[in-house]
Amino acid sequence: MTNRSACAYWRTRANPLRGMSKVNRLTAREKEVLLLLGTGLGNRQLARELHIAERTVKAHIARIVEKLGQETRLQAAVLSVLVHNTLCDDVRCSCRYAATAEELPPAFAV
């Protein structure tokens, strides 16, 4: 058996939180795009949801990836999920709560 770490992040030197402190550098529209990106929608669906052209979505995503210091759209989407509480201001959103049972409101506790 090899002596390699079981942690994929450590092995690949990836840091899913890289860029977290840079989220506030995004414009309001870029934050909106990033929040939707975290839902897993494709460019066409994002364009429909935002009422913009697909090429505009691609431009927004490219700027977001660059501003956040990410390498890929997927990394930006993962970061979006991790910082959902920062991006989302909808008080009805059940995703705004941390994923620990003790921090969930009673209606969402598992």
TrEMBL record:
Pfam families per UniProt: GerE (PF00196)
Protein name: Helix-turn-helix transcriptional regulator
Presence of keyword Transcription regulation: yes
Domain of life per record: Bacteria
InterPro entries named among the record's database cross-references: Sig_transdc_resp-reg_C-effctor, Tscrpt_reg_LuxR_C, WH-like_DNA-bd_sf
SMART domains linked to this entry: HTH_LUXR
UniProt keyword terms in alphabetical order: DNA-binding, Transcription, Transcription regulation
Domain HTH luxR-type: 19-84
Xref: Gene3D superfamilies: Winged helix-like DNA-binding domain superfamily/Winged helix DNA-binding domain
